[in-house]
């Protein structure tokens, strides 16, 4: 169907305004603007109803690993469609989800061989929280008093109530406080704005020491610590300092506390390794993945864990030890088929191996961006970058929130054919891993130009 055929572009715009409630979107403002409606895509480019092209600078919400309309991925879905589009995992199996579970067990950190499928990042983490909670009641010897969780300031783990309870982004989460369980909170390892007032050059990772102390003090009641390895994404792309994750893992081991690694945003190559945990050879008790699992094609997620957890859920059908959690589309065969094709492309297709060249290019742009007068900090890890804009570099004073600078720069970029989303005044660049080097260069040049031409006042 072309844009001029029924429904017309005008009708689509009207129906969008009348019916579609967009997530994380102030809808009053949305209704006043002309909506951007994507009609098709190819590679790292998206095209709207008028045929205008946009560079997909944030991988369509941090998930599109290889780009769009990738022949092998399209083919994998097409082939599976000819067999079965959906069949349940409740008590029966399907071929692609079995193959995918096997593949995930092979590529994940050692020992994470048990795979529980779901359909979003939020559910992948929610499953881990519920499993950790139930595990302590059923393991031998049982420790039913271990019911609490610890998480970082600025954490984001999804939008279900369990995830929001461990999350800590005031703007998103405070509203729901009366519905949430209490979580132990430790400082974010934000080296640019150290919550402990320390300098990265001289600090002794006091933030991890505080986490270690908490784990030791509260081990009796602590079920698990949940963390985003690599970077705290929604907090503003805050990288964990070297050794942070390793020390956290060691502390949780010492005190028999579980570790939940939320790799929803960083899994599948984003930080340069298949999983961010692998930078420090950390094996968590739960590895939560989604977004990039299916190459960003279909809603697909998984929570991986090891046998000690799994064994605690065995017992006869009436024992009450079963994990009573599941979703209609858990282990969807189309999602599993495209996930297999995506992982193949990352490994055998050489996408992971070819990442270094793109990462080096991004590093060079990060260096250049650091010189701009309104850039306070550039945080780059693998093929992701957060550029924090500040009014005063010396004092790190942010721009007034009312100025909505991040939002306005992204709007300007959109008019120029670049789609990125800000996290307040942190501009996020996170293109598909397989983006052409020349297109990545152009993307960064646009971002650089948009920032360098933004007036201070
Ligand atoms: N965890 C992290 C670290 C995330 O970045 C996100 C989404 N941005 C989620 C969980 C939730 O994933 P989803 O949007 O698929 O529910």
Q: Can you offer a commentary on this structure?
A:
It comes from Tuwongella immobilis. Catalyzes the transfer of the alpha-amino group from S-adenosyl-L-methionine (SAM) to 7-keto-8-aminopelargonic acid (KAPA) to form 7,8-diaminopelargonic acid (DAPA). It is the only aminotransferase known to utilize SAM as an amino donor. Its EC number is 2.6.1.62. The chain folds into two domains: 36-65 and 353-452, Alpha-Beta Complex (Aspartate Aminotransferase, domain 1); 75-347, Type I PLP-dependent aspartate aminotransferase-like (Major domain) (Aspartate Aminotransferase, domain 2, 3-Layer(aba) Sandwich). It is 35% helix and 16% strand. It contains 15 helices and 17 strands. The strands form four sheets. A seven-stranded mixed beta sheet has the order 4-12-11-10-7-5-6, with helices on both faces. A hairpin with a 5-residue loop joins β8 and β9 (238-239). The longest helix has 18 residues, at 121-138. It starts with 8 loop residues before the first helix and ends in a 5-residue tail after the last helix. The mean pLDDT is 96. The structure holds 4'-deoxy-4'-aminopyridoxal-5'-phosphate. 4'-deoxy-4'-aminopyridoxal-5'-phosphate is lined by residues 120-122, 125, 156-158, 228, 233-234, 262, 264-265, 290-291.
At a glance:
With 457 residues, this protein is α/β, with parallel strands linked by helices. The protein is built from 15 helices and 17 strands.
